[in-house]
# Entry
Amino acid sequence: MTHVFRLIADTERFDVVRTVGKESRTRLAALDGHPVRSSWSPQEVELVPVGQRGDFFGLSWSVPVVSERAWDTLRVDLEGDAEPLELQCPEQELIALNVFRADALDIQRSDLVEFPDGGIMKVRRYAFHDDVVRERLMFKIPASPGEVLVTGPFVELVESHALRGAVFIPLPRAS
# Structure
C-alpha cells in the first residue's frame, strides 16, 4: 500500500508568494490539471517575506510554487506528473507546478460526502487504486481538484535533498 499525503507549503516559517494583478491571479487560479504550457506566458508574482527563504512557497493549495533549485532536483522524477510554468518574480526564479490529474481515487472504498445530485462534496477518508498511485509521485484527483497529493517516494526525495518549506499531511485512510 502506497502512502499518500497532502502537500502544502509551510507558510508560517517560510516566505510566501502572491500574485501581482488580476491576470496573474486568474491564470494561476485556472490551473486545473490539464496541460497549458504551450499557451503559457510567465505570470507576475512577488515574494512576501514571512520567515526563511525555502524551496516551496505558499501561493495556493492547488498550485505548488518551487524554487529553481527544487525544480532542478525534482524535474526528472516529476515528468508526467506536473508541468513547470515560469513565473515572473523580481526577487528569485520561481516555477509554478501545474499538477496533472489521475483517476487514482477508489470511489467505492472511499468515505465520501455527496451532494444531493450524487456529485462529490468532500472526501472524508481516502482509498486509492494502488496500481495508479504506485506510478505517480504527485497528482490531483478529480473529486478534490484543489488538493495536491504526493506519495511516500516524493516525500523521501524532498527530504533526501534537504528541500525546505514543504509540509506533508497524511491523508485519512478508508478501512
DSSP finds four helices and twelve strands in the chain. The longest strand covers residues 144-151.
